[in-house]
Design brief:
There is one protein chain. The protein has about 220 residues and is an alpha+beta fold. It is built from 6 helices and 5 strands; from the N terminus they run H-H-E-E-H-H-E-H-E-H-E. It has a 5-stranded mixed β-sheet. Helix 1 packs parallel to helix 2, helix 2 crosses helix 4 and helix 4 crosses helix 5. It is globular and about 45 Å long.
Length: about 220
C-alpha cells in the first residue's frame, strides 16, 4: 500500500473542506468529498496498489461530494427558516460537525425554573419548527433536556427528561409523528458554563434539539 498517496489524497480534500470563504453548501460538498476520498483511497490501495488508491480517492471524493451537497441543500433550507423564526430570541441555530441541525434553546425562552411545561413565548418557535419538520419528512429529531446543578439528581434527572418530553409532545400535537422523535435528559451533568452565578445557571438550564437526515442510499 502506498501510504504517501493515501495521505496526500486525504490531506488535499480536508484542506479543501476547510476553506473559510466557502458557502455552507460548498462546505458540505467538500466535507463529503474529504471523507469519501479517504475511504476510497484505502479501499483502492488494498485492491490495486498505488494506482488503486488514486482511483479510489477520486471516486470516493465524487460520491462523498454528492452526498454532502444533497444534505446541505435540504438542511440549509431548514436552518435558514429556523434562523429567521428565532432571530432576536437568543436561540442558537447551528450546523454540527456531523451534519445535524442544532437548536440550542435557553431557559428564559423554554421553561420556568423547576417546571417542564412549555412557556408561551417558546410556542411560536416550535410552531415554525413543526412546519419545517412536516416539510422534510425524512428527518429525525433528538431532544435533550438539561438543568443546572441546583437540587439533586433525583430532581434534576427526571426534570430534564420531562422537559424534552414536553417539547416532543408539543411537536406531536402539531402533526409530527412521534416515531421521528427521540428524547433524553442529562440532568446537570453536561453544563456549558460553571454553575457559580445566576446567569451561568440559566445558561445550563436549556433544551437542545438535533435534526438529522439519513444518508443517501448507496447504489
Amino acid at each position: 500500500m502506498n501510504k504517501k498517496i493515501i495521505v496526500s489524497a486525504m490531506t488535499a480534500t480536508f484542506i479543501f473542506s476547510g476553506c473559510a470563504n466557502m458557502t455552507e453548501t460548498q462546505q458540505g460538498t467538500a466535507k463529503g468529498a474529504a471523507i469519501g476520498a479517504g475511504a476510497g483511497a484505502v479501499v483502492g490501495a488494498v485492491a490495486g496498489g498505488g494506482k488503486g488508491a488514486v482511483i479510489g480517492a477520486a471516486v470516493g471524493a465524487a460520491a462523498g461530494g454528492v452526498a454532502g451537497n444533497i444534505w446541505s441543500k435540504r438542511m440549509q433550507e431548514q436552518k435558514a427558516q429556523m434562523e429567521q423564526a428565532t432571530a432576536g430570541t437568543g436561540v442558537a441555530v447551528t450546523q454540527t460537525a456531523d451534519n445535524q441541525l442544532k437548536l440550542d434553546i435557553p431557559s428564559d425562552i423554554s421553561f420556568d425554573i423547576g417546571r417542564a411545561d412549555v412557556r408561551q413565548n417558546f410556542r411560536p418557535i416550535l410552531d415554525t419548527f413543526a412546519k419545517s419538520l412536516l416539510s422534510n419528512p425524512a428527518t429525525t429529531v433528538t431532544i435533550i433536556g438539561h438543568t443546572d446543578s441546583s437540587g439533586t439528581d433525583a430532581i434534576n434527572n427526571p426534570l430534564s427528561v420531562n422537559r424534552a418530553a414536553s417539547v416532543r409532545d408539543y411537536l406531536v400535537a402539531k402533526g409530527v409523528a412521534s416515531s421521528r422523535i427521540g428524547i433524553d435528559g442529562k440532568g446537570s451533568h453536561e453544563p456549558i458554563a460553571p454553575n457559580d452565578t445566576v446567569a451561568n445557571r440559566a445558561k445550563n438550564r436549556r433544551v437542545e434539539i438535533f435534526v438529522a437526515e439519513p444518508a443517501p442510499a448507496a447504489h
